[in-house]
Design brief:
16% helix; globular; disordered N terminus
Length: 207
């Protein structure tokens, strides 16, 4: 499959000023009620945490009509885990003529660098491949529930046409992204991503 650079064209990027602060996720959790993974979703996320050997972020809220049940009706492919233990869990609703709602969760255990993707260019009948960042065009850094989140608006692979939030915890890079497509506007996607990060619950691996 051709992986190209996709720019969120025609969108007005109306970001507020970057948030600042030194409050950690753990210290903030001590002063506010920590979110809880929904009971009907927890088993799949707990199994994923055990499989990859690091904590995962289980959403306690999802944009309608999605839920976050791994292996459920909106997640027919389960959790895709690579040899390096990186994972992708996607949830998709699609209706012809009405658009779609598509949310992806990723993590890269033991790595904090932005992953690389292969970009294929064909010019003059010749094909050239190059390695480029999978997430680029960082537009803002904001503090969401003690997590220093970077907002990326040019993304690739399964995150094409998505706005993506990325943050780091204990040596691992985590991301959540959502597709900008009808019936959702860019601003609505941003609000959804804020809420997804704000309400995500940490699920630690069990022995």
């Amino acid at each position: 499959m051709r992986i190209g650079v996709v720019v969120l064209a025609g969108l007005v990027l109306a970001f507020g000023s970057a948030c600042s602060g030194s409050e950690s996720e753990e210290s903030q959790a001590a002063t506010t009620k920590a979110p809880q993974c929904a009971a009907q979703w927890r088993a799949g996320w707990q199994q994923l945490a055990k499989r990859v050997g690091v904590a995962v972020y289980c959403p306690s809220w999802m944009p309608s009509p999605l839920d976050a049940k791994i292996g459920g009706q909106w997640n027919s492919d389960g959790a895709a885990v690579g040899k390096d233990r990186s994972y992708l869990v996607g949830f998709l609703w699609h209706e012809a003529g009405a658009g779609d709602v598509h949310v992806n969760f990723r993590a890269y255990p033991g790595r904090t660098a932005i992953p690389r993707c292969v970009d294929t260019l064909t010019t003059g009948g010749k094909t050239r491949r190059r390695s480029i960042p999978c997430f680029s065009d960082p537009r803002e850094t904001r503090l969401v529930r003690g997590r220093n989140v970077t907002v990326y608006t040019v993304n690739r692979d399964a995150d094409q046409w998505h706005v993506l939030y990325a943050w780091r915890r204990k040596g691992t890079l985590y991301t959540v992204s959502e597709h900008v497509a009808p019936p959702l506007t860019f601003n609505k996607v941003m609000r959804n991503l804020d809420r997804l990060v704000e309400t995500a619950a940490i699920v630690e691996p069990t022995s």
